[in-house]
Protein: TetR family transcriptional regulator
Amino acid sequence: MKSGRKEIQRARMWRYFLDAATEVIEEEGLDQVTIRKIADRAGYTSSTAYNYFKDLSHLKFFAAMRFTTDYINELPLYLEKGTNTIDSWLYSWECFCKHSFDRPEIYAIIFMDDLGGAVDELLADYYNVYEEDLIRLPEEIRSIVSELNFSKRSMLYIKKAVDEGFIKEEEVDLLADTTLMLWKGMMNTVLNHRRNYTKEQAVQQTLYYVYETVRRVIIPGKENELTFSIKK
Structure:
């Protein structure tokens, strides 16, 4: 019973601090987030915050996850557009690019920043508190969303395309890793203002690279079965 009460208390405190962090991000921006600001807004001391979060990077990660709700909610709708695994996977990329380039600083924290290792543990902790974010999702999608390693997420999903005859098994890892690197490259370009891309241009350029990568590894003839296309 004591253990159960402790977990309830922990979840309650997490919500206090993450609600406060979310408010700071919305009002002042991600760069203005500090442990002290969040603790003050939550009505606690900084030392209390450190009882629940290892450091500021972890608190930022958990707060950033609160801004992915729209992406998680829309993902099943995009996956349903596809008529096969590769098709659905390309539509899922469209959904991810749409949301990630809309809030690049948020998605960079989640998928690119150094969090000191144990990222899977951080994600497990997050969904332990915000389990309702996963409950409403289909089981197949739930397992993908709860895997933070983006490349592994892709591999888990597109493996089915091997049985469907779209790609060879030895291409799965390459396709997953290459497309992730393409997204990270574009994300770095956007965040560092290396090119004057609009959000829409960043989305379409990334999708073009992802689609062209798929086209180069897909078994000849099978590309005709895809409904996904790049908007001109």
User: Anything to note?
Assistant: The chain has a mean pLDDT of 87. The chain has two domains: 2-53, 65-225. DSSP finds 14 helices and no strands in the chain.
